Amino acid sequence: MKLHIIETGFFKLDGGAMFGVVPKSIWQKTNPADENNLCTWAMRCLLIEDGKRLILIDNGIGSKQSEKFFSYYHLHGAVSLVDSLHAAGFEEDDITDMFLTHLHFDHCGGGVRIHNGKPELTFKNARYWSNADQWEWAIHPNPREKASFLKENLIPMKESGNLHFIDTSAASPFPHFDIEYTSGHTDKMMIPKIRIGENVICFVTDLLPSVGHIPLAYVMGYDTRPLITLTEKEKFLNEAADNRYILFFEHDPVNECCTVKRTDKGVRLDQVFKLSEAGLS
Question: Model pTM?
Answer without folding.
Answer: 0.97
